[in-house]
Amino acid sequence: MAGLAALLVSIRHQTGALCTLQAVAVPHPPHSPPQPSHTQTFSTSRSVPACHSPGEDTEVSEPGGAQKLQEERKTLGKRPKEGEESGDLSPLNSDESRSERLAQPRPARRETLREMALCSKMSRLVEATSLLVQVEQTLLLPLLQQHPLSLHPKDSIEFRNICSHMALQREGQQFERDLHEAHQCLKTIIEKLICSLAVSPSDSYIPVRSALRQILRDLLAV
């Protein structure tokens, strides 16, 4: 019964480690660039300085010059401002195009080969842990009730601690070291289980050993 109790403790710690790994494996949400508000766009459009026609403020000393100047100003007031006839609104168009570029979502950054390798390694670790727990619960646990086996949960406890430490990092060299240690620790757990089952005289453990070997091959696949 000691082996059965040890397996139950191991399964509990491995399940906790699996939950942590699944949370760590969730990708970070992309950071979207700040969107310019309508108020900012409107104020930018209004900030374009108006063009003044030369000679508007010129004084006239001839008789009737004031009336003539007033009529010229009325005429000039009806004309489109300088640059509007030719459609030259480059300052406004420049601001609007800049706002449109900021409003458009930036293309997602392509992952580097190193990041892809880490992601693949994390996926194999999550999958292997999940399959190990399933094999222990569905195949190994019922057999231990009939054929006792010497087991110890020490490695499973260490595995959970490594995964918990990994969750605090999420990136950087320390995260990579924790991920490597988690891989090695899970590899040790599976190998020790296979060795323990190999020394048992019961043939009932043969399917369990076969399933564990397949999990180990998938874990170590490159």
Automatic annotation (TrEMBL):
**InterPro entries in alphabetical order:** DLEU7
Taxonomy, superkingdom:
Eukaryota
List residues traversing the bilayer.
none
- List the residue ranges of the region (Disordered): 28-111
Q: Where is the composition biased (Basic and acidic residues)?
A: 69-84, 95-111
- State the signal peptide span: 1-17
User: Which terms are listed as keywords in the entry?
Assistant: Signal
Compositional bias, Polar residues, is annotated for: 38-47
Query: What's the name of the protein?
Result: LEU7 protein
**Species name for this entry?**
Rostratula benghalensis
Taxonomic lineage: Eukaryota, Metazoa, Chordata, Craniata, Vertebrata
Q: Gene behind this chain?
A: Dleu7
